[in-house]
Design a protein that fits this description.
single chain, Rossmann fold, eight-stranded mixed β-sheet, about 15% strand, 2 domains, elongated, ProC C-terminal domain-like fold, 8 strands
Length: about 290
């Protein structure tokens, strides 16, 4: 069995939006997995029925069913996409199997130390992504555990590159990067909602206002990403003397919008750090 995880079954534990997006990634070019090699575990019967029909993969409802499959054919890749609070109870069950696969976690606030303490023989890669993953425009953060290899990192990166963009960062930066990349879409949704409300206030149909605002945000991001333009430079180009843009910028500065965004990110970073502490406490209690 290849250490990179290419050979053997792929398991996905938790088939929410992230789990289903990862399934898309491994069935595309990055992973090259065959549906018959892939097993998804999720308790929701509706999700299981749909995935079985649309993706032609094996879907089970319980971890016990999954482990029965593992006795005959241990997985080479296991993707964890469950609520972080469930991990301390689930991990010991997997520790009883004679296997040391590549584990990939997208569980928020669950540090590598928690993953490696629970399943020390596994090679771990911690990830964090955002909802745009489901549209092929995700931003995924990666950091590796002590046993993961460069080949593992390259392999997992290729999976997520099927779903958007990838950035390798040290785990110490995960909280702030998660606040920007993982929680940022929620902030931008509020911005788009506010811009749309403004358009409606001034006579636009809501659907037109939403479309104009969303396409504007998409185009702005493309300019910055594709041309490597600094946001301040783009702002200066658009804000011509005595023009409409500068009037809007002045209003935002008067309202403290810039400071509010900085404060919001600070609050999210703090919450992400607190979740990591809570995860370590839960793992400690599970071993008592």
């Amino acid at each position: 069995m290849s250490r990179s995880g290419r050979d053997g079954a792929s398991w996905i534990i938790g088939a929410g939006r992230m789990g289903q997006a990862f399934l898309t990634g491994i069935l595309k070019g990055g992973r090259g997995a065959r549906p018959e090699e892939t097993i998804v575990c999720d308790p929701d019967p509706g999700v299981r029925e749909r995935l079985s029909r649309e993706r032609s993969v094996e879907v089970v409802g319980t971890v016990e069913e999954l482990l029965l499959r593992g006795e005959k054919s241990p997985p080479s890749l296991v993707f964890w996409s469950v609520k972080p609070s469930l991990f301390p109870d689930l991990a010991p069950v997997f520790g009883g199997l004679d296997m040391s696969p590549l584990g990939v976690s997208v569980m928020a606030g669950t540090p590598l130390s928690t993953l490696e303490e629970a399943l020390p023989r596994w090679r771990w890669i911690r990830t964090m992504s955002n909802l745009a993953l489901t549209r092929g425009e995700g931003m995924t953060l990666l950091t590796t555990g002590v046993r993961a290899t460069d080949e593992d990192l390259s392999f997992v990166s290729r999976i997520f590159l099927e779903l958007g963009r990838v950035m390798m960062i040290p785990e110490k930066d995960f909280d702030v990067a998660t606040a920007l990349a993982g929680s940022g879409p929620g902030l931008m949704a509020l911005v788009l909602e506010a811009l749309s409300d403004a358009g409606v206030r001034h006579g636009l149909k809501r659907e037109d206002a939403v479309f104009l605002s969303a396409q504007m945000l998409k185009g702005t991001a493309a300019l910055i990403l594709d041309e490597g333009m600094d946001p301040s430079e783009l702002r200066k180009r658009v804000a011509s003397p005595s023009g409409t843009t500068i009037e809007g910028l002045v209003a935002l500065e008067e309202g403290g919008v810039r400071a509010s965004f900085i404060q919001a990110v600070g609050r999210m970073v703090g919450r992400s750090a607190a979740m990591s502490v809570e995860s370590r406490k839960e793992e400690s209690h599970s071993h008592r």
